[in-house]
Amino acid sequence: MKTEAKTKRYEATTGPLVSVAMSNFNGSAYLEAAITSILNQSHTALELIVVDDASTDDSLEILHQMAALDDRLIPIALNKNLGPAGARNVALEAAHGEWVAIIDADDLIHSQRIERLLAAAEQLGADAIADDLLSFGSTDVAGQTLLGHDQTQGPQRLTAARLIHSDTVVTGLASLGYLKPMVRRDALGSLRYDDTLRIGEDFDLYCRLLLGGANFVILPDPTYLYRRHAGSASHRLSTGSLNRLIAAHETLAESAATKHPNDDELLLQLAQRKARLERALRYQHLVAELKTHGVLTTGRHLWRDPALLRNILNSLNDRRRRVTLSARRQRSGDTKTIVLAAPDRLDHVSAPPDAVRISVSVAPTLDNNTWPARGTMARQLVELASRGPIDVIAEGLAGVDALGYLPTWRSTRLSIRKQDTGTTLIPRNVVLELS
Questions:
Q1: Burial of 424 by CB count in 10 Å (0-12 exposed, 13-18 middle, 19+ buried)?
Q2: Which band of pLDDT confidence, cut at 50, 70 and 90, is reported for residue 11?
Q3: For residue 279, what is the enclosing H or E element?
Q4: Could you tell me which residues are beta bridge partners of residue 339?
Q5: How far is residue 59's CA from residue 32's CA, in Å, rounded to a whole number?
Q6: Are 108 and 33 a contacting pair, CB within 8 Å?
Q7: Do the strands 411-416 and 431-434 form a parallel or antiparallel pair, or are they unpaired?
Q8: CB of 394 within 8 A of CB of 377?
Q9: Predicted structure pTM score
Q10: How high does pLDDT run on average in the chain?
Q11: Which CATH superfamily includes the segment(s) 15-234?
Q12: Where in the sequence is the signal peptide annotated (predicted)?
């Protein structure tokens, strides 16, 4: 039996447990997909507060159309652009949930993300909880994760020292400040984003939260799909943004010295981060001078500060690596079909001879040990999807779960037992085969 899957609208009956805060500025190209991934969560007791930061595209029209279909979506329109930090603060002030979650307007989340984070947070007594980030969008980074080779067998605690150590202040996905946690509203208290920052505002807030003693846990499950593209503001540095970061860093250092005067590791990491910020600022001045005055004048600066030469070489090598990787993936051939099924069923699913067959299993929990395998599967799926349109053949509940790691597909056929459809959130645009 074949039937088109219908999108279900779920109503929260007890008020929002989770308030999702989203800032949007001219994000109409991705806004509907981001909102849909949130409203289609398996956990339904949520509200989504989208603050439109004085967009000039059709974002507001999209917001009002979608809000008319689901009253959990709450649009707030600003007349003046405040930047991501200021807009998120507006959303935080409007939040009613016991938990608040920040999600960007061009990203996507797995359909069970909020449910999994809530369950783990309650079991671990976390004040803030985040998952791994899975990059998609740009072919040269598709499939990369924030934790990368730092994957563990289970949850890990984030400390202020580790957060600061991770912040490399360079282009790319490295700093744990990119995490998108859910935070207990009572743990957040009066803390808000520093609205003078247009970059690094997440890192700054998380650091202040940790310096205040919050228990911050990271799960190695990459259920946050992080869109990487040329317009990503997170990857743009300037002398102005770096000067503001340095000023905010000084405030963090003063707070740490007052609250944790005997934490030598923390104070060391703060000192090293300040040195990295100052070196990044010198490098930006160097780049500006190179564009204005040419190589000869710039060479004098390199003579006085030769460490900056390493920054130039790293930048050139990174650009060359990304170009090479992108070209290699484009030449790697077309992947037309992906099969997602349990190990004992994988070879029995009817599919084209050149189909890529990927073994899937039940979602990880705190009581099982499937985190590394789940991360490997998710990275493989996104990398395959980055090569072009894909067709998916999925089986069972594990197949449904695996679909949550795919940002897009051309078509999907899902074989599932009829009794499982009543308790399982079926993604949109999926053709069902009921058994």
A1: middle
A2: very low
A3: helix 264-293
A4: 357, 393
A5: 9
A6: yes
A7: parallel
A8: no
A9: 0.86
A10: 86
A11: Spore Coat Polysaccharide Biosynthesis Protein SpsA; Chain A (3.90.550.10)
A12: none
292 pLDDT band, cuts 50/70/90, is: low
Q: Residues 98, 12: contact at Cβ < 8 Å?
A: no
269 by Cβ neighbours in 10 Å (0-12 / 13-18 / 19+) ranks as buried
Q: How many C-beta atoms lie closer than 10 Å to residue 308's C-beta?
A: 19
Rg of the Cα atoms in the chain:
23
CATH 3.90.550.10 segments of the chain: 15-234
| Token digits of residue 205 | 């807030």
- For residue 358, what are its two tokens? 């990927």
- In whole angstroms, give the CA distance from residue 288 to residue 298: 9
Higher pLDDT, 288 or 112: 112
Distance separating alpha carbons of residues 59 and 383, to the nearest angstrom: 29
Percent of the chain at pLDDT exceeding 90: 67
Q: Please compute the mean of the pLDDT values over residues 44-73 and round it to a whole number.
A: 97
Distance CA(35)–CA(106), nearest Å, equals: 9
Helix (H, G, I), strand (E, B) or coil at 233: helix
Give residue-wise pLDDT tens across range 149-203: 655 678 999 999 999 999 875 545 578 999 999 999 999 999 999 999 988 999 9
Whose tokens are 């309650």? That residue is 122
Q: How far is CA 69 from the centre of its chain?
A: 26
> From start to end of 17-175, where are the E strands?
18-24, 46-52, 73-77, 99-102, 108-109, 128-137, 156-158
What is the helix (H) or strand (E) element at residue 291, kind and residue range?
helix 264-293
